[in-house]
Each structure stands twice: as structure tokens, then as C-alpha cells.
């Protein structure tokens, strides 16, 4: 078995911790609507933080692993970029499909209760608000914020996968991809649950006042938890060496 340099082990642990922080931050950018959005009583996608983070992140993991497998000399930047792109495509597709249902199925205009005017288009929002709702549909600012969040989540997943492959490939080349993939999924789900406590149900994205209020604490928590996950990954590798 090959020994792993202590300096490299520390680097790997930190990269995994940073990746977890990326995944956590991603959730806050996404327009999470939950059950209210499903009934067109809030903006965003009608599902929760865990589903959005894990769903978009796992698609990013697939594209990142494909890049790694088909480009043996692929750098960390390429793998991370592939993860970000896959996640962005997935979430953009989900938001676009949801928008079609909102517009042509439910028949509601896209409006946010958090801002008087859309920060990107400048369109008035308050004129189209229905009574008793927190908005409906996926306004432009929510869509753009969601794309940014998906990029962060996919990049985080790609970075974890790349890091774990660097750890396990010299030790268990035949099954390194499987072990790295499963471990990455575990880190995704851990960091997908953490933001749900800060978000508390729904969040529209970067323009939502809740964004600034909770993102710092949530990212710190995810960094700490992911640091532990990184240590576990390294201990597993050390056990293989021993």
C-alpha cells in the first residue's frame, strides 16, 4: 500500500470542508418554495431544501465523474466546472418546467413579495400579488439566483469527488469511483439538511432578506460538519494503508 503524505491529507480534508460549505451556500441561492409554492402561494420550486440541494448536486456529481472518467488528465478545475454545468442544467430545467406549469396550468403571474421591483428586470412585483400569498411563480431574480446556487452546489460535489478520487485511486483503483461516489452522496445529504434549519421552509434567493440573515451561520456549520466528513474519509484511507 502507498503511504499518503500528511500535508496532502490536510489539504484533502480542507477541500472536502470547503466543498460542503459550497453545497450549503447553494441552497440559499435556490428558490425553495416547498408546499406553499406547490399551491402557488409562494415563489420558487414546490419542494424542499434537501431535495433541491441533493437533486441538483447529484446531477453535478454525475457530470463531474463523467469528466473525470473520460479525461484521465482532467484538472480539478475541469471536473469542478463539469459538476457546476450539470447542476445548472438540471435546476434550470426544473425551474423552466415549473414556470410552464405556473403560467399555463395554474394561470398565475410571476411575482415576489420580497421586493417591490425585480432587481434584474425592474418590473413591478406588488401589482400582481394575490392576497394571502407570498408571491407565485419563479420571477427572473429567483431564476438567476437559482442558477448561481446550482453552480455552487455542482461545483461543491465535483470538488468532493475529485478530492476523494485523489485519496482512494492509489489505494483501491478498481473501486475508487464507487467509494468516492457513495461518500460524496453522503456529504451532499448532510449538507442539504443543515440549511433547512436556517431557511425554515422557504427562501426566494439572493434578494430575500432571510438570505443575509442565515447564510453565514449555515455555511460555518456546514464547514465544520464537512471537516469531520473529510477526517473520516482520510481515516478510512489511512486504514487501507495500514
Q: What percentage of the residues does DSSP assign to strands (E)?
A: under 5%
The neighbouring-strand order within the major sheet is: 1-2
Count of strand segments: 2
Compute the average pLDDT.
85
The computed structural class is: mainly alpha
Helix count from the secondary structure assignment: 7
* Whole-angstrom Rg: 19 Å
Give the number of domains. 1
Percent helix = 55-70%
Low-confidence stretches: none
User: What general form does the structure show?
Assistant: elongated
- Main sheet overview: 2 strands, antiparallel
Distance between the termini: 8 Å
Question: What is the string of helix and strand elements?
Answer: HHHHEEHHH
Detailed description of the structure:
- By secondary structure, the chain is mainly α.
- It has one domain (6-241).
- The chain is built from seven helices and two strands, in the order H-H-H-H-E-E-H-H-H.
- The chain starts with 5 loop residues before the first helix and ends with a helix.
- The model has no long low-confidence stretch (mean pLDDT 85).
Question: Quick recap of the structure?
Answer:
The protein has helices spanning 6-29, 34-38, 49-70, 76-106, 140-168, 176-199, 209-241, and strands at residues 111-112, 135-136. By secondary structure, the chain is mostly helical.
Amino acid at each position: 500500500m502507498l503511504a499518503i503524505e500528511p500535508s496532502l491529507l490536510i489539504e484533502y480534508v480542507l477541500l472536502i470542508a470547503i466543498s460542503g460549505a459550497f453545497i450549503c451556500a447553494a441552497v440559499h441561492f435556490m428558490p425553495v418554495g416547498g408546499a406553499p409554492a406547490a399551491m402557488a402561494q409562494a415563489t420558487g420550486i414546490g419542494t424542499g431544501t434537501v431535495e433541491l440541494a441533493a437533486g441538483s448536486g447529484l446531477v453535478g456529481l454525475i457530470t463531474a465523474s463523467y469528466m473525470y472518467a473520460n479525461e484521465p488528465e482532467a484538472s480539478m478545475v475541469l471536473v469542478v466546472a463539469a459538476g457546476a454545468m450539470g447542476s445548472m442544467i438540471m435546476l434550470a430545467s426544473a425551474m423552466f418546467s415549473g414556470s410552464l406549469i405556473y403560467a399555463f396550468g395554474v394561470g398565475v403571474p410571476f411575482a415576489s413579495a420580497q421586493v417591490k421591483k425585480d432587481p434584474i428586470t425592474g418590473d413591478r412585483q406588488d401589482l400582481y400579488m394575490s392576497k394571502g400569498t407570498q408571491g407565485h411563480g419563479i420571477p427572473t431574480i429567483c431564476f438567476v439566483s437559482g442558477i448561481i446556487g446550482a453552480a455552487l452546489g455542482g461545483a461543491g460535489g465535483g470538488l468532493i469527488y475529485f478530492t476523494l478520487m485523489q485519496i482512494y485511486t492509489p489505494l483501491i483503483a478498481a473501486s475508487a469511483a464507487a467509494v468516492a461516489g457513495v461518500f460524496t452522496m453522503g456529504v451532499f445529504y448532510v449538507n442539504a439538511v443543515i440549511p433547512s434549519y436556517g431557511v425554515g421552509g422557504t427562501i426566494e434567493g439572493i434578494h430575500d432578506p432571510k438570505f443575509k440573515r442565515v447564510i453565514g451561520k449555515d455555511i460555518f456549520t456546514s464547514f465544520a460538519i464537512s471537516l469531520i466528513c473529510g477526517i473520516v474519509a482520510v481515516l478510512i484511507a489511512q486504514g487501507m494503508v495500514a
